[in-house]
Amino acid sequence: MAEFTRQRGKRQEDGGLGSVLDLLLANARLVLGVSGAAVLAIATLAVKRLIDRATSPRDEGDPKAEQKTLEESWQDLALIKATPKPPKKQRREDLSEPLLSPARPPAPGEAHEPRVCSAPPETPQVEFSPPRCLTLQEKLLSHYSSRLAVPEAQASLAPQLARSICAQLQNFLRIKCSELPFGSLFLSGPLLDGLGALAADHVHLMLPVVLDAALWSLIPGEDTVVRNPQYWMIKRTDLEYFPRGCSSWDRFIVGRYLSSNALNETLHKMLVASINWPAIGSLLGSVIYPVVASQELKLEVKHDQVELSITLFPVVEMEDKVLLAVPPEGLVENLWLESFYRAEVSKVKELDAGDAGARQHCLRILNGVCKSHPALHKLSGSPLTHVVLHLSATSLDWAEESLADRFQQVLEELVGYLEKGVLPSYFNHKINLFCELLEEEIDEMGFMLYRAISEPELLLKEK
Asked: Signal peptide position in this chain (predicted)?
């Protein structure tokens, strides 16, 4: 009885479903046309089969019946997939034309020309090329031209402004410190020498301290209290025959040595308290003020088109040495730092002129990368120049086409020097240019550069 009821209910459901499908197919011909009705009929038949199969009782345990059911399912699925797609409706190009144009019968005597359907124009195929990967050489040249080029207006205005300030400071020293034989002030730094300027924002102002060689002598760095060959002492000699006061610089003597710290303190007081910088700034169309808290002799200059930082360095030139009044940190105040900057610039330009090399390009990129990177900023300047000079003694190909190879080779050399913790000066191998770096700083720099050897692009990314 239950089975009968189930079969009856099934027949009623099938009858109801059949009536709905018949009504749908009958109206489909009017709405969709012959081809559309055929498509709908095939798809409806397939769906109906699937519904019948799902609602009919299974012959459990009969493998032949299960196999037949599976085959029929795949056939129905293939039937649905093979159903032709209805033709797309043609798009009306002109809305003024009627939707249906009745065919006009040919006039008597008029030949019936066959209607030719023009093929639709072929759509032009657009070839999509994959994005081009830039080589390291191209990335370096792009980085050089886009990020390291100083704007022309700033490149011309900054030195002009610095020279005007230099002239004003020179006049002040000649009037107020006429007893001190200062030499003529001159400008220096990467902006003028072209080895590492990222922007026209910093200039060095060199103030020569003229000494009488008969009254002063140099003490080598190895013999100083810090045992550092890069620092020198300037000793006052023959005090028995030429007592204190014979030299105008005797007022800066501390323990028979010319004190770089005492000279800096005197100049700092003059820059801060004695010079009328607001008046000079107004004359030059800018705002000038000394940096009071800095241990360096520094001026900040703000102009409408450029902001400039000027650092003043007292400099002594004796016995082919260039010594700056830059004592090391600590209690020692009589030491003078030997500078190789002038020799570095001269040597690099001399080598580039000899083989049309790209050392200056390479140094500007390296200095720009290190200066803008928080972990590498202490490598910029002199250490990089000395690495390039060391490398020039062994790698002779510095043409622009080899810029990428030399750039990567400099990174490898730097990692090697950092592993040892020693970078000897190109001009004096006794001097270790890494001697003032902390061990943690060396480890951080070495790790960063070690990664950059295999992926130099890391250093060229925006910070």
From this structure: none
